[in-house]
Amino acid sequence: MFNSLSDRLTDTFRNLKRKGSLSETDVNKTVRDIRMALLDADVALPVVKQFTGSVRERALGAEVSQALNPGQQVVKIVNEELVSILGGATRRLNLAKNPPTVIMLAGLQGSGKTTLAGKLGYWLKDQGHAPLLVAADLQRPNAVTQLEVVGERAGVSVFAPERGNVFGHDAALESGEGTRSFGDPIDVAIDGVAHARDKGFDVVIIDTAGRLAVDVDLMRQAHDIRMETNADEVLFVIDAMIGQAAVDTAKAFSDGVGITGSVLTKLDGDARGGAALSVATVTGEPILFASTGEGVKDFETFHPDRMASRILD
Ligand code: GDP
């Protein structure tokens, strides 16, 4: 990802760094080049405008530096502005003072929520937590089974719709493959949290339903799950490949459900990077994690500064 954007910016900066002095014309040309590169990478227009506006203003007003030549100074400004639109400082997961911490995953169908639930569970377990996955996606017939498979792979327990039943790894004894009544997802989420509290799981990860397009009913359902479970984190899961559509989707989830952060998935693909560069600005909330493949370990904490360096180096 970001290859083409990175190549374009590197070219722009190569010329810039050679210059001993920088005129307003040079700055304007650089800002134009950056704007084109970002638009070609599918970054949302308001984000591009905000970004180039800040870069231009700061580049023109930049103090003369002893250490950096004018070109290097602009590169530094671009780096800082990139870190800023990617969310600023690295944001850690917000863990509740009184466990269980409730983390809810929301996003379109296919964005990678269920896969992420397993990764997040695996990662938390690795850090000494006792996570529980809760299957509150009752929209797709296979979603519950899929979460159980994911949980098994990650070695993390799964709470599925049939009340009180825990399917999965270390809870296999308690479960039975009985018939399932696919009830109300809100009830399942509430029961899942209660079950975690009873059994000593300290983090609950709730997988919720998604549609291929934004859907008012599902949005309300996700909103209600959030309120009823008093979720500590509502993570908007977004496929980095979706390009310009990222903006409307992110805004819809942000307004309709209320989110506390985002997770970018499919960063291993050849997306141009627009969604990654737009989502923090559009939602006003940081990106917490990145998903980089289908395997349970293909997952990392998102560091805006490292991502900016990856784009600019
Ligand atoms: P959900 O509908 O939001 O729960 O999405 P899923 O978790 O079912 O993921 C949809 C598809 O994307 C599945 O085929 C996953 O294996 C795949 N997937 C999820 N995350 C990633 C990722 O980070 N990289 C790649 N390459 N594929 C992913």
Automatic annotation (TrEMBL):
Involved in targeting and insertion of nascent membrane proteins into the cytoplasmic membrane. Binds to the hydrophobic signal sequence of the ribosome-nascent chain (RNC) as it emerges from the ribosomes. The SRP-RNC complex is then targeted to the cytoplasmic membrane where it interacts with the SRP receptor FtsY. It comes from the Bacteria. Belongs to the GTP-binding SRP family. SRP54 subfamily. The lineage of its organism: Bacteria, Bacillati, Actinomycetota, Actinomycetes, Micrococcales. Its EC number is 3.6.5.4. It catalyses: GTP + H2O = GDP + phosphate + H(+). The keyword Transport does not apply. It is found in: Cytoplasm. Composed of three domains: the N-terminal N domain, which is responsible for interactions with the ribosome, the central G domain, which binds GTP, and the C-terminal M domain, which binds the RNA and the signal sequence of the RNC. The keyword ATP-binding does not apply. GTP binds at residues 107-114, 207-211, 265-268. Part of the signal recognition particle protein translocation system, which is composed of SRP and FtsY. This is Signal recognition particle protein. The chain holds residues 1 to 313 of 544 of the full protein. Residues 286-299 form the SRP54-type proteins GTP-binding domain. It is an enzyme of class 3 (hydrolase). Keywords: Cytoplasm, GTP-binding, Hydrolase, Nucleotide-binding, Ribonucleoprotein, RNA-binding, Signal recognition particle. It comes from Ornithinimicrobium faecis.
